[in-house]
Specification:
Blueprint: E1 31-45, E2 53-62, E3 65-75, E4 88-95, E5 101-108, H1 115-123, E6 130-135, E7 145-152, E8 160-168, H2 176-186, E9 202-210
Parallel strand pairs: 1-9, 5-8
Antiparallel strand pairs: 1-2, 1-6, 2-3, 3-4, 4-5, 7-8, 7-9
The chain binds zinc ion (ZN).
Length: 212
């Protein structure tokens, strides 16, 4: 079933008051380590008509918890809003050993075209899963402001209990044409901003580490 972003006010939300996306503010205090423990190797572009979705393998560690990469996909326009303007949001969806999700969201401003996304866009076919060999590991920026909070999936079933790490960065960019490609193929696939409801937001500088 196609996801209808024009009808998102009617998406069933059987959860509480900790939904995503949210508007994020804050001044970075200290650093938060995110450790890459396995390369992010994409093997397939999914048959998906709501987003550019990429399957593969990878792994990282956050606060001593090990997370396996499950899939990546994009939202245009962005879902999380910051005081600075960004144009495309890449979600790297992970699960820990108990199946608890962590999404690393990389916010991209418009600038030079991104070559990895260009390769994925060139491979995407409507209605057909397509093999693609791509290394997304370099997508993790070395310098970024990281916002962390507890939220939800931004598509139905809108499940809560998601650890969000939202990275505001300028090392990686997308071209205006790449943003237009996304909205032309998938429509505007951003969920509306949800109330923060007194949830704490941790804001720190990303300390990107690697055991690769
Ligand atoms: Zn997403």
């Amino acid at each position: 079933m196609t996801l209808d972003y024009h009808d998102q006010g009617h998406w069933a939300n059987n959860f509480g008051q900790a939904q995503s996306p949210v508007h994020l503010t804050g001044t970075p205090a200290g650093t938060t380590a995110l450790t890459l423990t396995a390369p992010y190797r994409i093997t397939q572009v999914a048959a998906d008509d709501t987003t550019l979705r990429l399957f593969g393998t990878g792994a990282m560690r956050l606060d001593g918890r090990a997370f396996q990469f499950v899939q990546a996909h994009v939202h245009a326009p962005v879902e999380h809003q910051l005081d600075a303007a960004f144009d495309l949001e890449l979600h790297l969806v992970h699960e820990d050993a108990l199946g608890q999700p962590c999404v690393v969201a990389i916010l991209l401003p418009v600038g030079p075209a991104d070559p990895a996304l260009a390769a994925a866009m060139a491979t995407w076919r409507p209605g057909a899963a397509t093999p693609l060999s791509l290394d997304l590991t370099p997508f993790f920026p070395h310098t970024a402001t990281m916002y962390r909070y507890r939220g939800s999936l931004t598509t139905p079933p809108l499940t809560e209990g998601v650890t969000w790490c939202v990275l505001a960065q300028t090392e990686h960019t997308v071209s205006a044409a790449q943003v237009t490609w996304c909205t032309a193929h998938f429509g505007a696939n951003a969920r509306a901003i949800q109330p923060l409801n007194a949830r704490p937001v941790l804001c720190a500088q990303l300390d990107l580490q690697s055991t690769l």
